[in-house]
Amino acid sequence: MARLLIGFATVAAVVAGCGAGSPAPSSSLPAHSAVASPAVVCDSAQFQPTPRLTCGPAVAAALAVLPPAHPPIVREEFRWGGLCPPGAPCVPPLGDAGIVIVSFASGPAVFVYVHAEGGGVAAGSVVAASSPAPYPSGY
């Protein structure tokens, strides 16, 4: 029992000592506000039958491959199909592949290719995501 009390006393002393040398917060430092939730835009194309890939799992898979130290995200956009230049003939999108475009508070936007693998999202498939790449301007 004495060992237990000594252990608790030691931990309490260490914890108390950690805060003793800390300066008091300064009122001149800027207050950090919580970052608002990013805007999420989902492709509104209608597919029959229901697509295997949907917006939520696609965005989640894309966010999972972003580097951990990225700037705050301000917008997430899911589109079926691939990256296609404006006005160019493109392959019609299918319901199992798309891209997610992520815009940050600072720096360039990136995009991630995503696709449903296996039996479809509803059947428990996995959404695979590529590495992020710079989103080309003008797209």
List the keywords.
single chain; 139 residues; alpha+beta; 6-stranded mixed β-sheet; 2 helices; 21% helix; 24% strand
Report on this model:
It is a single chain. The chain has 139 residues and is an alpha+beta fold. It has one domain. Helix content is 21%, strand content 24%. The protein has two helices and six strands; from the N terminus they run αβαβββββ. It has helices at 2-20, 55-64; strands at 39-42, 73-80, 97-104, 110-117, 126-129, 133-134. Strands 1, 2, 3, 4, 5 and 6 form a six-stranded mixed sheet that branches. A hairpin with a 5-residue loop joins strand 3 (97-104) and strand 4 (110-117). The protein is globular. The N and C termini lie far apart (70 Å). Residues 1-34 have low confidence and may be disordered.
